Amino acid sequence: MTEITSLSLFELIKNIKEKKISSNEVTKSFVDRSQKSKKLNTYVTENFENCLKLSKEFDNKPNFDLKLPGIPIAVKDLFCTNEVRTTAGSNILNNFVPGYESTVTQNIWNEGGILLGKLNCDEFAMGSSNETSFFGNVQNPIAKDLVPGGSSGGSSSALAANLTPVTIGTDTGGSIRQPASFTGTVGLKPTYGSCSRYGIVAFASSLDQAGPMSKDVKDSSILLEVISSFDKKDSTSIDFKRNNYSSELTRNIKGIKIGIPKEYRVDGMPGEIENLWKKGIEYAKDCGAEIIDISLPHTSYALPTYYIVAPAEASSNLARYDGVKYGLRSSGESLIDMYEKTRSEGFGEEVKRRIMIGTYVLSSGYYDAYYLKAQKVRQLIKKDFDDAYNKVDAILTPSTPSSAFKIGEKSNDPVSMYLNDIFTVPVNLAGLPGISIPAGRDKNNYPLGLQIIGKPFDEQTVLNIAYSMEEKINYKNNITDWWME
Amino acid sequence: MDGIMSKNNSEYLIERNDNIYEVVIGLEVHAQVTSNSKLFSSSSTKFGAEPNTQVSLVDAAFPGMLPVINEYCVKQAIKTGIGLKAKINNKSVFDRKNYFYADLPQGYQISQYKYPIVGEGNVILDMPEGQKQVGIERLHLEQDAGKSIHDIDPSNTLVDLNRSGVALMEIVSKPDLRSPDEVNIYIKKLRSIMRYLGTCDGNMQEGSLRADVNVSVRLKGSKELGTRCEIKNVNSIKFMQMAIIYEANRQVDLIEEGEEIDQETRLFDTKKNETRSMRSKEDAHDYRYFPDPDLLPLEITDEFIDQLKSEIPELPDDKKKRFIDEFKISPYEATILVSDIDTAKYFEEVVAKMGKNRDMKLAVNWITGELFAVLNNKNIEIAHSPISAKNLAKLINLIKNGTISGKIAKTVFELMMDGDIDPQIIVEEKGLKQQSDPKALEALIDKIINDNREKAIEYKQGKEKLFGFFVGQAMKVSGGKANPQLINEILKKKL
What we know:
The complex is a heterodimer of chains A (485) and B (495).
Chain A: H1 9-17, H2 23-35, E1 43-46, H3 48-60, E2 72-76, H4 103-110, E3 114-119, H5 153-160, E4 167-170, H6 177-183, E5 186-189, E6 210-214, H7 217-227, E7 257-261, H8 271-286, E8 290-294, H9 302-317, H10 335-346, H11 349-362, H12 368-388, E9 394-398, H13 414-418, H14 425-430, E10 434-441, E11 447-454, H15 459-473
Parallel strand pairs in A: 2-3, 7-8, 7-9
Antiparallel strand pairs in A: 1-3, 4-6, 5-6, 5-10, 9-11, 10-11
Chain B: E1 3-4, E2 13-16, E3 19-32, H1 71-83, E4 91-92, E5 95-98, E6 108-111, E7 121-127, E8 130-143, E9 147-149, E10 158-160, E11 167-173, H2 180-197, E12 209-219, E13 229-234, H3 237-256, E14 264-269, E15 274-280, E16 290-291, E17 298-299, H4 302-310, H5 316-327, H6 331-338, H7 341-354, H8 360-378, H9 389-400, H10 406-416, H11 423-429, H12 438-451, H13 453-460, H14 466-477, H15 484-494
Parallel strand pairs in B: 13-14
Antiparallel strand pairs in B: 1-2, 2-3, 3-11, 3-12, 4-17, 5-6, 5-16, 7-8, 8-11, 9-10, 12-13, 14-15
C-alpha cells in the first residue's frame, strides 16, 4: 500500500470507512511526517498529542456517517480555535488563546475532523510569500529556499509536503489560489458569503473568504461541502441552496462555455505563462467546452482598487489590537504611549505599511479621491464579470503571472510582490468563486496553476470544469523530501 | 447698561455696549434605547451590574467577532422617528467611526454617518408665550462606548465594558433653540415622547439621556449664524442651562473685545461653572468614517414602517388636544397633565373612575395641587403614588356629591396616604360626613344667631363683614362638617 500520507482525502475516508485503516493510524502517519518536517516551518502551533488522543477516541466509538470520519486536519492560523493558540502570524497575538471556535473549523469538527495543528501564514494574511509571518518564512517543499506563496503559505506547504491530507486557507486577494499554484496543489476561493467569516481573524472584511486546499479537485469538493454554511453570526453570510458538491461532481462539461479574457494578457507576462494558458484552452476544448473570447475592460484597475479597499478595511479591523484587552501589551507612560509601543512592537513592517495606506486613503480630504473612487471602480469590475456571464459559464485564466520565486527575492519590493495577485484580485473584488489547479511546470520544474472563475454561487460548475481538466492535465507533484534529515 | 435682558422664556438676550445679542442653540441628544440586549450583541443592557459582567466577545472586540444587528433596537429607533414626525429612511448605512480609546474595544464606533435611519422631523414646544416648533435634523443609531474609571485605582485607569455596545439614538436638532428655558422644555418634550413610546427611559441620572450642546451668538436681528462651540456630554438639564449661559456670555465678551470665536469642542466644568476648551478645530479627530463592511445596508420596507406606525400609542400632542376637546380643560392644564406619560395615565384613570357625574375641574385641581405637592415633597414618581387613581376619584366624587366639604376632603386625603385607604371608609369611620340636613342646620343657625344677638343686629344695620363671622361660627359648632353652601343660604335667609 502507498504511504498513508500520500493518499487523497477521498481515499483516506474510503479506507477508514472500510476499516482498512484507523483514524489513529492515519493521524500517527501525519504527525510523524510533520515532526520530521520542521525545516519547512509550516506549523505555528502543533496539536499533535491531542489529535492522537482524539483519533483514538474516534476509533473507540467511530461514526462512519460523518463526512470527515476521524480525519486529522491542520488549518491556517487565522481561524480561531477553542483553547488552541491563534496568532494570525503576528507577534501581537503571540500568546492569544481564543475561548471560541470559528464557524468554518467547527463545521469540520462536527463532521469528524480532528485539529492537527495551526499553520503558518503571512501576518494577518498580508503577503504573497509567507515572509511577513512573525514566526518566520515557510519553505516550499517543491525546492529549497522557494516561497510557498501566501498568505496561506503554511497551508500550501504542509499540503504539498503531505503533512496534512487537506487544509483550509483564507483568500482576500489570492491567498488560497496563489499558494496553491506555487505548490502544485488545488485551492478554491468560494463565493463571498458562502463560508462564514465568524471566528476568522479579519483582514479585509468585504473580501475575506475561507476555502478548501487539497491535493486534487475531488478533495476540495468534499471539504467545501463541509465548510460552506449559512451562519446568522455573520451578517454577510448568504442563505442560498448549497450543492452536495462531491456527489454532484462530474467530468461531463460538454457544451459549457468558457471565456478567455483578453485583458489578462498583461505586459511582460512570461512566455511560459502564455503557453500554459494556451495549453489550458486546449485541455478545456478536449473536455468538450466551448471557448469564447471575452473582455473584462476594467481589469487593469483591479490591483490599485484592491490596494485601496483592502488596506482601508484592514486599518480599521486591526485597530482592536491595542494592548488593552488581550494579546501583546508593551508598557508605556500613558495610554497613547502604550498604544504606540504595543503596536510598534506587535506589528511587522508589511502590516504597518498597510495600516498607513489604509489610514491615508480614509482620511478626510482623501476619502473621495481614493476610497470612494475605489468602491465605484469595484462596481465596474463586478459589472465586467456580470456582462461576461451573459455569454459564458466560466472564465479561464492563469493563476499567477509567474511561478514561485526565491525567498527574499521580492521581500524588499512590495509593488513587485503585489503584482503577484494581478489575476486573483479581480475575483475577490467581484465576490466570485475561483479555483487554482496545477497545470504545468516552468523551466525550473516549478508548478504553474490555471484559474477557473465561476458565476456567483456556482462553485459546482467551477469544480466540474477543474475536475474534468485535471484528468486531462494529469499533473503530479514530484516531492523529494529534501528537507528531511 | 450691560446685562442680561431676558424679555421672556423664549429668548435669552445679552446686552453689551448697546449691542443686543441673541443665543442660538442646537442639541445632539444621546438617548439610550430601551432594549434587553445590545445593538450588535446579545449581552444584557441592565444598568448597575458588577463591572464587566455584561460583556460578550463581540462587545470586547475579540478577533474574528462580528456584529449582528438587533432588530428590536431598529424598531425602537423607527418608532422614535415616527414620534418625531420624521421621515423614516428605507435604506440606511452603518459606518465605522475610527478612533482609539481604552473604553472603545473595536477601535471604532459603529454609527450612522451619511445615511441615518431617520431624517427630518419636528417637535412642538409648549412655551408660556405659545407653541414653538423645533426642527429635527436626523436620528441615527450607534453603539455606546464603555466607561473609563479614573478614580478607583491611584495609578491605573480601569475600564468597564458593560455599557460597550449598548444602543444609542443620537437625535440632532436644528439650531432652532433660543434660550436655556427652551432647552429645558425641548429636552423634557423629547423625553416625554420617548417615554410614551417606551423607546428610552430618559433617566438622566443613569446616563440614559445625555447631550452635546452647540452654542453660538449673533446680533439680534442678524440672519447669519455665528461661529459655534460644542459643549460635550452634558448630563443634566440644569448643567446644560448653566453651560449655555456661561458660554453665550463668554462668546459675547470675545466679540465685544474684537476677538474671533474659535470653532472648538469644550467641556463644562460643573464645579467651577465654566466651559473649557477641549480641542480646537485643527486638533479635531479625523474619524475616517467608512461603511462597516461587516454589516449590510439596513433596508426597511414601507410595510414594516406601517406596521410600527399602527403600534404607536397616542402621543403627548394628540393627547393634549383630546384632553382639551373631550374634558374641556385649559391648554395649560392639559400641557401639565400630558407632559409625563404616567401623569396622563393617572389622570385618565381618575376621570374614568369618577363615572358619569365627573368634575374635571376638581380632578385637575386635586392632581396638580394636593397630589403633586405630596409627590414632590416625598420625591415619589406618580407611578408609585401612595394614593391610587381609583381612590382619588372616589374622594373627588365625595366632594362632588356633597358628602364632604373640600376642607374635610383635605383631612381625608392625608389619612388616605397611610396605605391607600378608601376615602368612603375614612369618612364613615371618622364620622366626617357633611351635615346637609336643612332642618338640623336651621336649628344650629338659630342657636348661633340667638347667642350673638348684638352682632346680628349690627349686620342688619349694614355691617356686612360680619356674615363671615356667622359662617365661621356655624362651621366651628358643626366641627367643620356643615355643608358650607347650605349654611350660606340659610344664614342669608335668617339674617
